[in-house]
Design goal:
about 40% helix, 16 strands, Rossmann fold, 13 helices, globular, alpha/beta, 6-stranded parallel sheet
Length: about 375
């Protein structure tokens, strides 16, 4: 029985904010608690307060100077106050996430003052993409200053894929360890033998430049113009600043009868749409390891994706993943049609368990114990 850990997550955002990083943190913290450890979260929010959520104690501090609903900053002196608050709380390690978030810098300072290890998890596989030149330049400046300092100052650095670990090395010179993303397998319908996927293409993600919703619609328009393809639908699950543009493109390409935008939907709704469908994932952003790929496998989906982190590994293990090298609309359309006409066998649930949080948390605890031994 491993020693009980008390992990203090010092992070910029946490649910109910929605995003891949927020979900990773929440699922990791929840599974730690479920396995008998303690998890405390310190985050930023519009409404400060303290609450207990799924066994996790959550401290929400005031956030300042929000930028594009992504970045915000803590109050001056937050690190000093957190050191005083948690000095006698039995914290065994601090968990920070993503190099450019101010709370990662705070977590690093708190760890040094409390003399406990800081385990930093990186989620991006490259510099920020899909933003304006000004934002791109500013983000690089932050990366090579504060971000690099965070990685070099942490006791251990984890990356959610091999590509992320390579980026960590390139940016900071630090050798990180792979700590793959994971999902909860609870709530998914039982797998049954499947002869062919539903004629339904599904996109899951924020509607932002670079995420690929527009490439999906371009490819769908090509398939819709080919009478030999047969009927199909396109379901776009997600919201964001490009929602109006997505709606307009659907109208202009004459896809209103087959393509539908749903906005933000619940996890249960995502599971429902993914079941026996074809997930299309044509993102060109600097993704880390998208849990959507794992959710699609849990839903016995076929997956059509660009070469994003994790996709090649899943394909090498026999998952029904079709990698698209030709990023033109024609190339994507051809892959989508292949997924419909020649589906691969579903990924077995027993193999998917290696990508579940109960398995991953055991690894995380071992990594924390290893980090603690370095400071002993």
């Amino acid at each position: 029985m491993p020693e009980q850990q008390h992990i203090l997550f010092v992070v910029n955002s946490f649910p109910p904010r929605v995003g891949g990083i927020e979900r990773h943190i929440a699922d990791l913290a929840h599974e730690l608690v479920r396995q008998g450890h303690r998890a405390t979260v310190v985050t930023l929010a519009d409404e400060p307060g303290v609450s207990v959520e799924n066994g996790i104690t959550v401290h929400r501090l005031p956030r300042h100077f929000p930028i594009a609903s992504v970045m915000s900053f803590p109050s001056f002196g937050t690190a000093r106050r957190l050191r005083r608050r948690f000095a006698g709380a039995g914290v065994t390690a601090i968990s920070t996430h993503t190099r450019f978030f101010p709370m990662s810098w705070v977590g690093l300072a708190v760890g040094k003052r409390l003399r406990i290890p800081v385990v930093h998890t990186e989620h991006g596989s490259d510099f920020v993409r899909g933003v304006s030149p000004l934002i791109g330049w500013a983000s690089r400046v932050v990366d090579v200053t504060f971000g690099r300092r965070t990685m070099r100052g942490a006791t251990s650095v984890l990356g959610v894929s091999e590509q992320v670990v390579a980026f960590v090395r390139r940016l900071s010179g630090v050798t990180g360890q792979v700590f793959y993303n994971a999902i909860s397998l609870e709530g998914w319908p039982a797998q049954v033998e499947q002869s062919s996927p539903r004629r339904r293409f599904v996109f899951v993600g924020r509607l932002v430049p670079g995420k690929g919703w527009d490439r999906l619609l371009d490819a769908a328009a090509i398939l819709a113009s080919d009478s030999s393809v047969g009927p199909f639908t396109v379901e776009i699950l997600g919201d964001g600043p490009d929602m109006a543009a997505a709606t307009l493109q659907i109208e202009r390409q004459g896809l209103t009868s087959i393509a539908h935008t749903h906005g933000y939907v619940s996890g249960e709704t995502v599971r429902s749409y993914l079941h026996d469908s074809v997930l299309v994932n044509p993102t060109t952003l600097a993704e880390g390891f998208q849990t959507t790929l794992l959710e699609a496998l849990a839903g016995t989906c076929q997956i059509v994706t660009y070469l994003v982190p994790g996709a090649a590994k899943l394909a090498s293990e026999g998952a029904p993943v079709l990698l698209v090298n030709d990023q033109t609309p024609t190339g994507l359309a051809a892959a989508m049609r292949t997924a419909l006409d020649f589906p691969q066998p579903a990924y077995p649930l027993e193999r998917l368990e290696q990508w579940s949080w109960p398995q991953r948390v055991g690894q995380y605890v071992s990594l924390v114990e290893e980090a603690r031994s370095r400071l002993a």
